[in-house]
Hints:
Helix content: 25-40%
Bound molecules: FE2/S2 (inorganic) cluster
CATH superfamily: Glutaredoxin
Structural class: alpha+beta
Order of helices and strands: EHEEEH
Mean pLDDT: 92
Low-confidence stretches: none
Strand content: 15-25%
Shape: globular
Strand order of the largest sheet: 2-1-3-4
Distance between the termini: 28 Å
Number of strands: 4
Amino acid sequence: MIDQPKPAHRIVLCRGDYCNLGRRADTLYARLRDAVDEANRATPGETPCASLRTANCLSMCAVGPNLVVYPEDDVYHHLDVAALEPIIERYVRCR
Length: 95
Ligand code: FES
């Protein structure tokens, strides 16, 4: 079995009931997924910068939508699409 290289950053976006009110987390997920896919396609065979996962709740609903980046444990609250772009620039386009 060949080990896949681990991405440098693991992005976890909450898609729980509160964070996804009005389908806002779905919108954020679509933007993040496109950015991660684009970055990974641009550098085939290299260790990906980021992976994207979702959570059902990150236990900070009142300040959602929320996202956490590991291994840094960087936490982002009150996300919208505009706030997502610097996060993509920092963690997804890290070349
Ligand atoms: S629903 Fe997102 S933190 Fe609880």
